[in-house]
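Researcher: First entry.
Model:
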Amino acid sequence: MEKDEALGKQKTKNTLYYSDYAHHPTEINATLKAFKDNFPNKKLICVFESHQTYRLNRLFSDFVHAFESADKLILLPVYKVMRREEESKRDAFDLAQAIRKKKKETYFVPSWGNADKMIGKIQNEGNTLIVFMGAEDIDANARKFCARLTL
């Protein structure tokens, strides 16, 4: 997957879809800001799958602020890496709660199936830019989602 790879455009709803490898708070912040700057009239929706509980716990407060440019945020459970995980103090649900306190429209979904349904509803609002972010499964799931659309 390339950085900021366009997955398609749904012409009837004027919705754009991108996939991005960003999974560190600094990368997330910069990437979302760039999308917002390049598409100022679109509602920016970020669908994010965090990579490693270790990183999420260590950089939790940075993650809380990383999504400021997004209008809506959908968080999936943390992608866990075998033999590299620690006992988790916080998870994606905790991150969603912390971001929600900043008055950001944020949703935690327990599985890709739930995210898929929510994205389907959000894209119907039209004039949106949906950015799938993360280092692992989210790209493949985003591609499957977009392949089902009439682009």
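Researcher: Second entry.
Model:
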Amino acid sequence: MKFLPKLILIYLCLSAFCLAKTFAQSSRNSLTPKYSNEYLAIGVGARALAMANTHVAIANDVTAGYWNPAGLLRIKDKYQAALMHAEYFGGIASYDYAGFATPINDDSHLGFSIIRMGIDNIPDTRFLLDNTGRINYENVGSFAEASYAFIFSYAHYSIAKGLTLGGNAKILHRTAGVFANAWGFGFDVAAQYEYKKWQTGLVIRDVTSTFNVWNYNSEAVIDIFSQTNNEIPTNSIELTLPRMIVEVGREVDFSENLGALLTAGFTFTFDGKRNSWLQTDLLSGDFQAGMELNYKKTVFLRGGIGNFQRLDDFNRVQYIQTQPSFGLGFVIKNFTIDYALTNAIRSADNPTTFSHVFSVKAGFDDKKKKK
């Protein structure tokens, strides 16, 4: 029985790698574009963002519905909810998250998450020129490009001590004004294992490949696209290939009031060669690490580093660029307020642009009080 948790984790890893070859071959197909549904890889919760997204092994609150649904069972409140808002690219793009979690019984937990990333008020210049060929700014309208995710999470204790299992069912919706929209669905599988002060986590997102169906309103653009010799879009299918994340965490106590949490892990993608520390035709891999210092479990100082990339300078000398992040957290009774300073989304023109991210979490009806 002691080896059961390891066997389950090994089985999940082998399953992903057995499918990897097929995924790698299919990644050359137009149905499986690189960075498909990449907005779901940004992350939720300022605590996790401040720790370079190293949250798969240590997720123990409502945000576990996103990071690792198996972690929902470690929530101490009967009801827990969280909100987050972030802006990227100088406020052009907004990213919002809301989550809720509650137990079904002593052995299982449910969670629900909503994510929206969008760019609003994009100028629609199709009718900038009037019938006489003159510019008429009154004809300029606007539209929004938005991506939504509705995530339903479930977690259950396994028969092995310290091991919890979880899964997600996702419904995705993407819109680009009146021009195009898509619906998709997919699944995630996850596990967490806790032994003394060690914590490990494994998540395979889009485990069966997430299926997206795009519908284009060709009538809205056919005239302009024909005049500019652009290809007229047609309805199509897009597949999001799996992503596997493996992480480990360790708690350290310096004194009765001062402690730390160290985390590190790897993220593997199967949609082709990316600019990461590990680059192969089969998969690409990223490394990330984070740390959290706490005082009486009420004040937190966080930091992390990840997204290692190889770049060339003006002299074509290669160097390594990383993505650092920092943050703070405060617990006030039933509320937790977190802040992160991160450049989770980097602009090619200004890679040093950082974003300020805030999130708040509230828990009610502590389960321990009823025991």
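Model: Note on the second entry: The mean pLDDT is 86.
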